[in-house]
Amino acid sequence: MSRGSLTLRGRSLAWGARTYVMGVVNITPDSFSQDGTSDPDAATAIAIHQRDAGSDILDFGAESTRPGHQPIDEATELSRLMPVLERFRAQDRSTILSIDTFKPAVFRRAHAAGGDILNSIWGLDEALLDVVIECGAPVIAMHNKQVAVYRDVVDEVLASLDATAQQAVRRGMTPENVILDPGIGFGKTADHNLEILGALERLVALGFPTILGTSRKSTIGKLTGKPVTDRVYGTAATVALAAAAGIDIVRVHDVEPARDVVHVADAIARKWRPEGWGA
Predict the structure, then answer these.
(1) pLDDT tens, per residue, the chain with 279 residues
(2) Is 87 one of the catalytic residues?
(3) Among candidates 70, 94, 84, 57, which has minimal Cα distance to 213?
(4) Catalytic residue selected from 109, 145, 188, 217
(5) pTM
């Protein structure tokens, strides 16, 4: 079912047509996934690799949100983010970029330098809504919670996300530009995460575009017994389930295998076919 499209930089990603891949670019030395760097040249090289591996969107983040992370101020976040964003945009004006931050001032600066989408792990407060409306930018709003206590995790997460999306629409945002993330691993136990992963069709049924970020996360480690750098197959299982459920974007560290997974899953579940299929 079509839910509009994301139109940026001369590209149109039609929601519901297939599953798009977002490649992670961690511009921080303390990422949980052990793939981050605060060296601008090294981080730019990672971004180029993720693009060339088949990302539809790249996600630049300069503050770790791993459990027990040390928060950083705006100046530190910008000192990491901006050199990489500027280097990348100097050579690539067409790739869609999301900026993983929950600080309005950081997104405002990043948007002016070529960032396209706000990706906020703390949903949308009024200040963040103000800045995305000011910039005319789409937003990814993630569910998060300080304490992992729920009566029914699926009901509460969906109700919270729907309320966030409706608030954004009331402020004038178009529904196709409000992308919802259930926040796997954020304010949730491993069992909570599995409950949400078993109810992805209900998330899609809210009617807004959706994104899922399970890549390398601790729940996969608990299930497989594998270290964080060896969770590609566990991640692939969740990516396939996400595509079959109708999730629009999967956010991953290992882009090339995820690309293969969504191509096969989309061909089966959505009747998608690659260009030149009938030749």
Answers:
(1) 457 999 999 999 999 999 999 999 999 886 665 677 889 999 999 999 999 999 999 999 999 876 666 789 999 999 999 999 999 999 999 999 999 999 999 999 999 999 999 999 999 999 999 999 999 999 999 999 999 999 999 999 999 999 999 999 999 999 999 999 999 999 999 999 999 999 999 999 999 999 999 999 999 999 999 999 999 999 999 999 999 999 999 999 999 999 999 999 999 999 999 999 987
(2) no
(3) 57
(4) 217
(5) 0.96
- How many Å apart are CA 269 and CA 209, to the nearest integer? 17
The residue type found at 188 is K
From 51, 103, 145, 251, the catalytic residue: 251
Q: Which domains does the chain have, with CATH numbers?
A: 5-269 (3.20.20.20)
Token digits for 258? Answer: 């995820």
Told to judge if 251 belongs to the known catalytic residues of this protein, a careful annotator would answer yes
Spatial neighbors of 13 by CB under 8 A, at least 6 apart, are: 5, 6, 7, 20, 56, 57, 96, 248
Which of these, 117, 152, 110, 155, lies nearest to 136 by C-alpha position?
Answer: 117
